[in-house]
Specification:
The protein is mostly helical. It contains eleven helices and no strands. Helix 3 packs parallel to helix 6. It is globular, with a radius of gyration of 22 Å.
């Protein structure tokens, strides 16, 4: 009968210990990174500043949404909530990945069984907890300080939960895929910021999307931010606010469909691109990047 135990390298005959499941390793790593984030006052202050800016803008927004009795400030707050989720997944995560790649993290993962999936799980956990915490802080602070809206009834809270979950699933893997292909950290932000700001303006996050030309609305509807904002408006605003939507309704099935499609696409891209980036890493490449950074003054010699 065939022996079920594999010999360890070197012929000792000792059974090889099974590798720790990558998802468990990812959660352990993610927990460590969350603790580091909470102890990093600079990074925490960045998230707090985003919330403070959103509250200041909302506090100075007057009037109602055209055709409704819904305050424009409430629509803007729902848009800011969607944008904060989008920003953390699609701006912050690629910068983290590019920075850690420059520091040799992907090179080390090459020697770790299941290292890339575990790394992706850890980053997803870090971003999801950060995004949900930022969203909760924004909504609670807005409700207390500027009379901001909160979901009404169990249905509203359930919609907030699934839209937030699907929205993060749509953008976090996409952010990881971008982080795998972007160049150095200095260029990563510049390459992402312009299209993200364009989406912020065209996705109906700051003002009713119906005020934009129809072709612009159609382009924005391809991307997840428009649907994240629409789903959050459905959770936070009264039903009467549907009159300001292009279709005159919240279109929640379409929200779920588009966000799910982006989530699937992101996961299909993220793992192979991260693996490809890890395979391309080598000690010589890492040393060359460090020497280039030292010559440019971006890294101390």
């Amino acid at each position: 009968m065939k022996d079920t135990q594999e010999d360890a390298p070197g012929g000792t005959g000792s059974p090889r210990r099974p590798a720790r499941p990558y998802w468990r390793a990812g959660f352990l790593r993610g927990g460590i990174e969350l603790r580091h984030l909470l102890r990093n006052s600079k990074e925490m202050s960045g998230h707090l500043v985003n919330v403070a800016v959103a509250l200041l803008v909302v506090a100075y927004v007057d009037d109602d949404v055209p055709g409704t009795r819904t305050p424009m400030a409430h629509l803007a707050l729902a848009g800011f909530a969607a944008y904060l989720l989008f920003q953390i997944g699609l701006l912050n995560l690629p910068q983290i990945l590019v920075t850690e790649r420059e520091e040799g993290a992907l090179l080390r993962l090459r020697a770790t069984p299941g290292g890339i999936p575990a790394y992706l799980v850890a980053k997803c956990l870090l971003v999801v907890v950060t995004a949900v915490g930022t969203l909760a802080l924004l909504l609670v602070a807005a409700a207390l300080l500027v009379d901001g809206p909160l979901p009404q009834g169990p249905g509203g809270w359930l919609t907030l939960l699934w839209v937030t979950t699907l929205g993060l699933l749509a953008v976090v893997p996409l952010g990881a895929a971008l982080g795998a292909v972007l160049p150095n950290p200095r260029e990563a932000l510049a390459l992402i910021m312009l299209p993200v700001m364009g989406l912020l303006i065209t996705s109906g996050t700051a003002f009713p999307i119906t005020s934009l030309p129809v072709p612009v609305q159609q382009v924005a509807s391809v991307f997840p931010l428009k649907w994240m904002a629409q789903g959050l408006r459905s959770a936070l605003l009264p039903d009467a606010a549907r009159a300001a939507e292009p279709a005159g309704s919240w279109e929640l099935p379409m929200v779920a469909l588009v966000l799910t499609a982006w989530a699937v696409l992101g996961f299909l891209l993220a793992v192979p691109l991260l693996r490809r980036a890890a395979r391309r890493e080598s000690g010589s490449r890492l040393s060359a990047r460090h020497r280039k950074a030292e010559r440019s003054g971006a890294m101390p010699a």
